[in-house]
Amino acid sequence: MNKPLLAALATLVITGAGMAPAAAATQTSGAASAPAKGTAGASPALAAVDFAGTVALSNCSGSVVRLPGSADGDPALVLSNGHCLETGFPSPGQVIVGQTSSRTFGLLNSAGTQVATLRANKVVYSTMTDTDVTIYQLTSTYAQIKSSYGINALALSDTHPVAGTAIKVVSGYWKRIYSCNIDGFVYRLKEGNWTWKDSVRYTSACDTIGGTSGSPVVDTATGKVVAVNNTGNESGGRCTVNNPCEVDASGIITVRQGINYAEQTYQIPACFGAGNKLDLTRSGCTLPKP
After folding, report:
1. Are 234 and 208 in contact (CB under 8 A)?
2. Cβ(88)–Cβ(4) under 8 Å?
3. Bridge partners of 190?
């Protein structure tokens, strides 16, 4: 995984420095590349993608996200990876719902400057089964964040992305933006004891590193989040921690050293009702259940 920073350093032996929690191995202010804003000559159809609404966790990246049905007064949500959960990696088959949390997040503006510290009161949902996602509920509403800091949440798409789509992976931890395309989709992505379904495979330009785990993957045409960055094959290993392998529907395994991956997020909105309330029994909700 693009491991969480602390996991990369402190739990190298038990988690493998390679698990997708792309958390930073060491935090440096210089890891930032210039914010990838739309250029003057870009098509007007392209959305400007910068750091506004992204967050830095203690060991990973993330973003404040808004569902299609969210209201201004709803408690805001933060999206990151399951393997970035502060209490440790969820076990295969484990789904965590409603766990108390007081985790903090550094909220960034468009230039990548931290303008606030946001706090969670709950882990709404977390799993590393089929996908690799943690969703936190904040003590602030979308309206309060906008009023206090002038920052909007990133919109979460509810439709499956398309191969060839231009994307940006925006790391709040490193304050770095990667630009590439969706190369395709992986039937099953296996890493150690975990297996993920219908994962996004990047083209090689998105060479994400530890600390980028949990970064939003943004469609540059719509500005919406279509996936959450989570892993990459670091050294050519076969289906091991930090060296995920692709498994097709026939069981054929492919290893792509140096290629990185994300987990789609279009399934998430169907599992939330009014008030940003998680409801895994809703029609159309396909996220794994406890």
Report:
1. no
2. no
3. 195, 245
Sequence-separated (6 or more) residues with CB below 8 Å from residue 233: 18, 242, 243, 244, 245, 255, 256, 257, 258, 259, 260
Q: Give the total residue count for the chain.
A: 290
Residue 124 and residue 166: Cα distance in Å, rounded?
30
DSSP annotation of 60: S
Question: For the residues 219-233, what does the mean pLDDT come to?
Answer: 98
Q: How much of the chain, in percent, has pLDDT values that exceed 90?
A: 83
Indicate the pTM of the whole model: 0.88
* Cα-based distances in Å from 208 to 126, 137, 164, 241, 249: 22, 26, 18, 16, 27
pLDDT in tens, 77-99: 999 999 999 999 999 999 999 99
129 in Cβ contact with 136 (< 8 Å):
no
Q: Are strands 61-66 and 114-127 parallel, antiparallel or unpaired?
A: unpaired
Q: Using an 8 Å Cβ cutoff, are 271 and 41 in contact? A: no
Give the separation between CA 168 and CA 224, rounded to whole angstroms.
Answer: 10
Distance of CA 263 to the CA centre of its chain: 8
User: Phi and psi (nearest 5°) for 31?
Assistant: -70, 0
Query: Each residue of 113-123: b (16+ CB within 10 Å) or e?
Result: eeebebebebb
- What is the rounded distance in angstroms from the CA atom of residue 90 to the CA atom of residue 195? 12
Stronger pLDDT, 43 or 248, i.e. the higher one: 248
Burial (CB < 10 A; 0-12, 13-18, 19+), residue 31, is: middle
| H or E stretch covering 8 | helix 5-10
Residue 136 carries which side chain, given as an amino acid letter?
Answer: Y
The Cα 71–Cα 75 span in angstroms is: 9
